[in-house]
User: Fold this.
Amino acid sequence: MEQAENPAISRGQFGDVLMLYMALCCFMMIMAFSEMIRTMTALGNGSYTGNRFLPLVFVLLTLALASPFLVTFYALSRPLSMDALSRLSVGAQWAGIAAAILLCILYGYRAWKNGRFWYTGAAIASVVIAVIFANSLLFVSRPDAGIVATFVLNNDDSNDVQCDRSVLLVHYNKGTPTEWRCPTGIMFMSDTSKPFLPWPDYHGGRSQHLTAALDLLTDSALRIDPDQKP
Assistant:
């Protein structure tokens, strides 16, 4: 399967940049820093009775929510192999979903204990972020997942894949309709075979035409290099 040369963050239209995932991460970061400021204020006047390290835990877990974003910039300055980049991408997504679950528990407990609206909102936001990570991991963790450049598609009447981006995220198996996702916003780690494409910033479907194009590429590659695996 062809790998397209792309920046680590796939560019979308500027109107798509502030997507749901990033908006939720910003909200969670505001909540975490609010917790830290509230704790420091209480420590200063001697009224704080809780665990003074808990606000730091909130900040660190919130940073883990943005791990695909942070790993993307880390990878920009490191000469890493495609396999290493793909492992980093999947690892960052697992870190994100684990952090989201822990934050949901912590904020849910605070909402139950204190009854504050913003704690309830943070717990709900954590659930949504966990769903976003799970949606991505269910797609990219499969062995048939990868990316393919859209130039392999012929723009004729048989082309049923509508995508104006340079790459597609696909599940490809020879001879069967290929499941695909086309980014409509930012795709993190887009130069790996297992990028992070947050829901709902994509559209997708299944295409036999895409399968035929990939079958042709695979067969051509095998004729050139018979030892290459399909």
Q: What stands out?
A: Residues 145-224 form one domain.
